[in-house]
Amino acid sequence: MSDAAVSNWLLAAAVLAGMAGMGWLALSMQAHAQQVWGRALPATASRLLRWLGATGIGVALALCLRVDHASMAVLVWVMTLAFSALVIAMSLAWRPRALRVLAPWTGSRR
Hints:
- With 110 residues, this protein is an all-alpha fold.
- It is 75% helix and 0% strand.
- The protein contains 4 helices and no strands.
- The protein has helices spanning 3-27, 30-37, 43-67, 70-94.
- Helix 1 packs antiparallel against helix 3 (43-67) and helix 1 packs across helix 4.
């Protein structure tokens, strides 16, 4: 596989990690948990989702740093996070229950 193909796969993984991270951070908030599951989450689940969100965002940064030099990687990472935040916000506005896929262990009610 060529270097360009590997870079593209790493950047795609960074976007997915950023989206998952932003989604987990959003789901850790009680208002969004209410939208998605129809109930508030326990404090332990919220803490786990916050931790996962921070980890996802960190993984996105690490992947961006693997592809480019630091100044370009940080720019790509910030743009990835902005895109991810927009996607998660639109998902919460349009189909909030679709975000259940990010935390299936919470025991969703149908």
